[in-house]
Amino acid sequence: MRAIITSILIFLSLVSYAQEVNITGTITAEGNPLPGANILVKGEDRKSVSDFDGNYEIRAAKLDTLVFSFVGFDTQEIIVGDAALINVAMLGSPELEEVIVTASGVKREKRAVGYATSDASIVIRGKVSGVAVTEGSSHPSRYNDLAYGQLTAGEINDLEKWSEYYEIFSSGEAQKVAGRWGFIHKNKIDISLKNKDHTPVANTMVALYKNKKQLMKGRTDVNGSLVLYKGAHNLSDRFLLQVYSEGTVVGKSISGGQQAVEITLASSIAATNTVDVLFAVDATGSMGDEIAYLKSELKNIMNRIDAQIAQKRVALTVYRDHGDSYVTRSIDFKEDVNEVKDFLSQQDANGGGDYEEAVEEALKVSLSQSWNVDAKAKLLFLMLDAPPHYTEQNVELIKSQIKKAQEMGVKIIPVVASGANKEVEFLMRSFSVATNGTYVFLTDDSGIGNDHMEPTTEDVKVEKLNDLIVRLIEKYAGVESAL
Predict the structure, then answer these.
(1) Residues in domain VWFA (predicted)?
(2) Residue 270 scores a pLDDT above 80
């Protein structure tokens, strides 16, 4: 009998230790709450991310080990035991004690260790928990409203570095990724539209035909420029460009080998001075390490374009994945950026679970907003760290949305965050090339967030993310830079 009782007690004890409970706590660094820290149950798929105030919640059993990590800090492992409240003070890793970013940007060679800086550059120094600006400071850091100007990023404009892009996407993994999603950009032609007085003609539809069949069409940007793609062809193929202006059609024959063409119009309708900017943000749990910082950067960006661009509208889409509490949420274009900032403040990172997310739904919702067809610039910044689910239906949906963006004249500018793989990079570079945009990626230089993928390119110039995005908005809006 005693053996039976002992066995029962041991069994009940094991059941007790295996039972999962909610573990909560606060993660701090140097006495301040640390948002975006990662918490996971060792050996399990369960994970969580600390919120703006450093608070977290995760289910675990007494015998489980919780792993706390954040880039630039020592990883800590704690056995749960009887504790229901576990607070953690993160300690910095000595090998990542300091980063240096110059205000004019840092240009570094691929895989280079050091940074080439100019003596005239303003040097901004900070610890890996975030770059604390000592010159040209933003505003005091508060973890419910983090200091902006901390995230670092680079840009690859494949249209301006076409030979490198073409070499990368002509073979290997890049070609495979682009091909499986239906993106083959070959034999581009640079189109320039001008008036008789040689001024650029913006927001004008141009269609490209091959053997009397339309291949694609798009709208010129503020510089009167547009890139279209002839694709594979042979010597017998005949190509025609048609420009739609003031109810008339202007046609121009081009050769298969022609790489650029300039067309002069007798008259045209000028585009309005309005600029439409939409931010689409992945709000799944994997973005938790950086979304708090992204929100501060976006608010700063909105404030700056509000001050520098007289006629503008801003919109926002946040998205997760099918099966989450929501797939997409959005606020349509507003002239008052404060309305969009308030909407942004209410968003957090949660959900997801698998790697892929509902990128196709984000595109569909974003492109269905009330874009101003006459705006001189239409920009969609797509911020994400994961690709869409690869299905036949999603391939067709994404291709249809990219075609819609082309015809609307919306430039898609991906902004790729930590945790992304090469499929994300190569697919997003296809998005930007197809819509005459550019590709942006966050870097490790800020010390914020998890590891960031090194892009496939010859050289990288590192800038502060908010400056980079404002620079791009001004560039595509034809506004003289105020940086």
Answers:
(1) 276-460
(2) no
